[in-house]
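Dear support,

I submitted the protein below through the web form. The confirmation email said the job was done, but the results page showed an empty box. After a refresh the structure appeared. I'm attaching both so you can tell me whether what I see now is the final result or a partial one.
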Amino acid sequence: MKMIVDFEECIKDSPRFRAALEDVEGDVTELEQKLDKLVKLCIGMIDAGKAFCAANKQFMHGIRDLAQYSNKDQVIESSLTRFSDSLQEMIKYHTILFDQAQRSIKTQLQTFVKEDLKKFKDAKKQFDKVSEEKENALVKNAQVQKAKQHEVEEATHILEATRKCFRHVALDYVLQINVLQSKRRSEILKSMLSFMYAHLAFFHQGYDLFSELEPYMKDLGAQLDCLVGDAAKEKRDMELKHSTIQQKDFSNDDYKLECNVDAANGIVMEGYLFKRASNAFKTWNRKKPDHTRRWFSIQNNQLVYQKKFKENPTIVVEDLRLCTVKHCEDIERRFCFEVVSPTKSCILQADSEKLRQAWIKAVQTSIATAYREKGDEAEKADKNPLISINSPLSDSKENLVKGESALRRVLCIPGNFYCCDCGLPDPCWASINLGITLCIECSGIHRSLGVHFSKVRSLTLDTWEPELLKLMCELGNDVINGIYEARIDKMGVKKPLHGCQRQEKEAYIKSKYVEKKFVDKSSSLEGCKKRSVKKKQGSSLSAADKGPASESLNRTPSKTSVKSNDSGIQFSTEVSQEGLAGTTSSNSLFDQDSDKKHDKRDSTVFLEPDLINPLPGPRLYQASFEGNLPAMAEALAHGAEVNWVNTKDSNSTPLIQAVHGGSLVTCEFLLQNGAHVNNRDIKGRGPLHHATVLGHTGQVCLFLKRGANQHANDEDGKDPLTIAIEAANADIVTLLRLARMNEEMRESEGLYGQPGDETYQDIFRDFSHMASNNPEKLNRFHQPDSPKT
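What the results page shows now:
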């Protein structure tokens, strides 16, 4: 290394030394300015990079939204999804690049400026001070008179001491200069080399990523060429068809008859007909004829009509075998005919005589066909009874349980066929913590509220856990609207329809769920119980007609006795065995919860002294034990804290009460609404402890999936695994040990936040399905009595 300033010249303090110092000091000042400028530019680059990554991330989300919108087109959805995943990886690489730039340029050079250059400045200050003192000593020594011997000696001693100090400080200063000049080369090169290696890694990662994507892009390009060719061919075909149809005579009734048959879908005849009103006036509504014109069709041996395509068809004749058809010549209108059934008659009008004859013939043909089909089915059933077992009618229940989608199951609940907030038919989204169905636009507004108000999930795209599906089937739009829209009529607020502006819907939904303006604050717990019991009784009455898809959980209302004591009002609830046990069936998703059984726990709940209108927290607490989801939803709407602690009942929470109530779906409802799975009572027992003590296997599985801490000890020093081993409950011991093993495996492999291996997930998935669909398989062990709290 070549020295910038020579040590010998330093001792001499020659003009060359001073000139060298002046050059070095100017160079260091300029170096500091350049480094400060470079650090500021690096900070600006990093900030711009972060802004770029944020904008790129928004762009990537836009691509994913477009892919989700195009879910009916497999090619577009798959390609956009894969491209968005690649862009997501590139965003990660960009983030790593900017982090490396911050470490290599900003942090490293700032450290060099603040530490090494600061040492140089401190050494310079010391050198300048000592140099000045030396000059003063030289001047004083030169000015002393020879006659004053004492002053001569004193000046000589001061000069010697000052020169000695100057040599030490000057040598240190020169050393600092030479070290700084050497170190700045290594620091600058090291930081820049690190920065360039970060770029090298970034472009290598991008190259590798797109090298893997390139074959797919080439295949997609080939498909695109085919698509362009197909689109051109389809365009030519459509232009030809357009020209052919344009040349047809649309006034001819024969053409209309050709268009009125759809044999592939079982439609014998379809088309527009005028329908005379069935009221007392028997009018045709001449002012607005479109009010009486409907799209009629004959299908599945029924005569139905609808005004709009998305509307549910209205059945005019449920079974054509029971009706007859005839001409109507005794009324003022032309081309009319009458369809007569045992309970009513319907007068219809065609557009021409030829169409009237075609409709009459189609109805008569359908009547004859219906008779023949029913006769053939009866004859086959008599010859071979096994056919009735394998027929589609007997398969409907099996398909409902095992093969039907979440969409159809949830839409079977009363009120769920229309969006809960705007009334649009056929909703495909749901809010799982509220238990309602939503259209796609309202679901987007619900997402903007935040997950603490509404958790949105697709009924068609997402995978549904059985307990979540049961939760949706326990509530429904009618129940929730009865709570959150209780005062909407009194307030004179108009509920927005699906055709309204998005801003109007957003304001209404925010007022409904966030501000809760339409909740009836004066309603009592008893009112909520009556509504829920009435709803459940109605559901059970219609279950026989609608089949298993409309069955809901029925519970006998609890008997509540009121006692007074010094601490307030004590509500003592004795839950009947029928209410807790229910009716069990292993073939329906809507059966009783897996662990719902008679629980001998003393469910005494100490509430606040307000008998007329108990506080929302105690109301939620009581309803959680009873498994009354409508009452729980109403308590939450009234402001109940989901993690409310009953200090007069061993610091128990609504989630712990739900465990003792034995309802799996009640626990899921509380967890989806923000209940803490690890809150413990005064004995140090959380929901997982209580579920283990009671032997509720389904609840144990649920809490473990929701992140319950199985290592927590109660006041006796026992964790859930110890309790399960003492109770000899093999299923719960298996679940706890498997969860613990999976946790240890993830920690050892650094897989924090990941669910674990597929075996672990499959076993927990099997237990979840068993708890919801086949609860009797989990009731293999003695269920211990709950200890009184």
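Response: this is the final, complete result; the empty box was a page-load delay. DSSP finds 24 helices and 13 strands in the chain.
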